Amino acid sequence: MARAIAGGRPTVKDVAVAAGVSATTVSRVLAGNYPVSASTRKRVLRAVQDLDFVINAQARALVGGSTRTVAFIVRDLVGPLFAYIGQGVEQQATAEGRVCLVCTHHGDADRELELIELMREQQAEAVVLVGGGLRTPEHLERMAQIARSLERVGSRLVLCGRPPIGPDAPSTVVEYDNEGGAFAVTNYLISLGHRRIAFVGAAEPNHTTTSARFEGYTRAHRAHGLTVDDSLVVGGTFDRESGYRQTKALLARDTGTEPAMTAILGITDMVASGILAALREAGLRVPEDISVAGYDDIPLSADLSPALTTVHIPHEELGRAAVRLALHRDEYALDQHLLLGTHVVIRDSAAPPRENNAR
Amino acid sequence: MARAIAGGRPTVKDVAVAAGVSATTVSRVLAGNYPVSASTRKRVLRAVQDLDFVINAQARALVGGSTRTVAFIVRDLVGPLFAYIGQGVEQQATAEGRVCLVCTHHGDADRELELIELMREQQAEAVVLVGGGLRTPEHLERMAQIARSLERVGSRLVLCGRPPIGPDAPSTVVEYDNEGGAFAVTNYLISLGHRRIAFVGAAEPNHTTTSARFEGYTRAHRAHGLTVDDSLVVGGTFDRESGYRQTKALLARDTGTEPAMTAILGITDMVASGILAALREAGLRVPEDISVAGYDDIPLSADLSPALTTVHIPHEELGRAAVRLALHRDEYALDQHLLLGTHVVIRDSAAPPRENNAR
DNA sequence: TTGTAAGCGTTATCAT
DNA sequence: ATGATAACGCTTACAA
Questions:
Q1: Is the pTM higher than 0.70?
Q2: Through-space separation of residue A97 CA and nucleotide C5 C1' in angstroms
Q3: Please, what is the end-to-end C-alpha distance for chain A in angstroms?
Q4: pLDDT tens-digit series, residues B20-68
Q5: Where do transmembrane segments lie in this chain (chains A, B) (predicted)?
Q6: Is A300 in contact with A310 (CB distance < 8 Å)?
């Protein structure tokens, strides 16, 4: 029964004294990596109990080399997508006996870089960047430099859900087929007969997620010999509110001179959820009057009404793979790049257009 | 431009040599808490740049005292409720210049205790337990002991969304009025005219959240001179699947000998979401045929159809307050206990019963 | 203003 | 099988 010792944390030395052995022996008992006589071990463990001793992880890391710490940096903790990937990261890290540091940058790319530096100070074994990010030449260069810095000290930058930085940036990349998913879902809408498909996206043209999804959307049009009507492409952010507002705006501006859109693709499921709300308010039925699709397949999607047709991402596996590859990179190829598949999940929010405009 | 230095992480000593000063001076420049001549500072900073030096947080913590680390332990990263509280924890910690450690226990109370120990090894300044927990005498005693252990080394156990452990357990408690919220929402259903209200809860009678919410539910009945029909109280877990299954079971067992329930209270919004799905499948309309209410007011609730009547919890504020109190406990009273309010959010899922059974 | 030296708590190395 | 000692990278007296 932990007898309390007044003042301060007990150290191996205190335990050693209490057990009548040397600090070295205590260390050996605790680590269990060296032969110690049974009787001594018992005395030491007894002293550990009595003093309520726990080892100092910082001191151990200082001499032992590794902190056994994995850092993950996400936009927000609350988005279901980030949460699920984070869940995967945390699970795998725990499974590998690591502890998890977590930070959020709320979409601020500079803050993201600061956080990586902070995690370097923390000696994280791996720094996992979750979700898409900025993609400008300057930012990429700074990122590459940071990747090299991490590499130099035996750590590793991991891109999870983001394309590689460049050839000379040592990093582990675990992506999902972002563009392919957008292509597939747009293609599905087109195959249903839709020709005027609005894209409610994010106004961050240099964001990897934004550009990949938009590219998939346009490529699907091209594949069918269609051209995208720019007036149907609007910006915003990744959240529900944005989907709601942008859809309101789209509907308001619909003067009837052009045939209205018959379908809307939201850049995320949260956006799609806002789209559905706006349409419902406008008295439009989904999918009878207009079709809607999203992207991410967050758990919410199945519970919307109508249940949302969307693109599935292997969230958790993405996070798990990121940690697994980073921690065992010697066992894998040097240039680590994993691309996981996405697929369309057909639910109830998309159907053939009321009047098929296909010419 | 960070000239790469081959092999290993540079240390203050390396910087000192490069700048032609002592390690002490480097330390002083970095900490900025001691006068250093402008020219020296410049040379040092230059060397830091050149060597791409970052300080070793572990070593600094070892000598400096604090790790500037806050740990938070949650059931899962994915539940919206936990995520929002975690968001609050992370935000406040960051605002206070702290770094966040996160662990999940998936509802395993023993694992939770292990994790607290792990966080004690990590020298976390505060260990925040998010969400309800087990409440058995043994568990409480172990928890109290851990609270004392943490206290002894200058750390702090923080209970966030869970009642206090006991009088001799030094801990910071930030609760919300769990019982009061359950009372209020049940009271609301009763005031609408419902007399047979099912409770779809969790089969963990010693779980703080379960018991508080169930207690509020029964107290509301008592307050109206009603008695709870035990056959309308079912167990399960906190997730959507449970709500779905339990509701299916309730409907199946409804033989018609007793008047059926006219309303269902889910122990969480996720459960309520499952309840809605089951009712929809059974062809029952909400709230025309049957009313439903939830608890937590997660973002999803507003998007369900019908939009869910539920109990709002100040999620983020809960997390923020937890960290704020823990880190400034000298400035507050010694026995820290904060109780935040909850309130019913009236949406569309509850209405007066079709045939008012009030006698 | 700057430097020297001791020490934080642990483990690895080398003895015994 | 056990112990003494020297690191690990940093800060903080104490000196100069």
A1: yes
A2: 38
A3: 83
A4: 999 999 999 999 988 999 999 999 999 999 999 999 999 999 997 799 9
A5: none
A6: no
